[in-house]
């Protein structure tokens, strides 16, 4: 069993049970959905390919590989640690079932010995994506850093993770994203490709 940390539990209670309102109930679950993210990435790939050429596929493939490696790493860690999710362990936790908000009863007794809470894959994947994307497209550094923060918040709000799970996911994702960036800087010259996508010039297709 994962040892209980008072500060972690206190912050989980604050973010999941106390800091709630109707607007957050609607907005935050959207940041835990992966489908919209992949739709956005696909749209950006089409747009960037039209703007800079088909070689842009390589940069988006790099993003996908980084997220895949991060997801694999978190799954290995989850099964090794076996921490039970708060939605199954903490009395009073809010969670969603079939799109509706429900709450664990105040007298809930944990009935699981193992789970897949630590670390958060959503937090890790979003951080790996953000770190690598900000390295490839430096102009994104002004705002993209907020993506993993909101994704992590959404996971606690939904009762899926403790804050410590999210923090561990962020660290893992940042490490993987940075390692992929370092690897790409060495590989790109060998492939005779610019390290940064914006170093490729092609007029906008009319």
Could you describe the 3D structure shown?
The chain has eight helices and two strands. It is mainly alpha-helical and 206 residues long. It has one domain (6-199): Up-down Bundle (Vanadium-containing Chloroperoxidase, domain 1), CATH 1.20.144. It has a two-stranded antiparallel sheet. Helix 6 packs antiparallel against helix 7 (146-157), helix 6 (121-136) runs parallel beside helix 8 and helix 7 packs antiparallel against helix 8. It is elongated, with a radius of gyration of 19 Å. The N and C termini lie far apart (60 Å).
Short structural summary:
The protein is built from 8 helices and 2 strands, in the order αααααββααα. By secondary structure, it is mainly alpha-helical.
Task: Describe the secondary-structure layout.
Layout lengths: L5 H13 L3 H6 L7 H18 L3 H26 L4 H4 L4 E4 L2 E4 L17 H16 L9 H12 L5 H28 L16
Antiparallel strand pairs: 1-2
Helix pairs in contact: 4-6, 4-8, 6-7, 6-8, 7-8
Largest sheet: 2 strands, antiparallel
- On the 0-100 scale, what is the average pLDDT? 92
Radius of gyration: 19 Å
Spatial strand arrangement across the major sheet = 1-2
Give the topology string: H per helix, E per strand.
HHHHHEEHHH
Text of the CATH class:
Mainly Alpha
Output the CATH topology.
Vanadium-containing Chloroperoxidase, domain 1
Tell me, briefly, the overall form: elongated
End-to-end C-alpha gap: 60 Å
Low-confidence stretches: 202-206
Oligomer: single chain
The structural class is mainly alpha
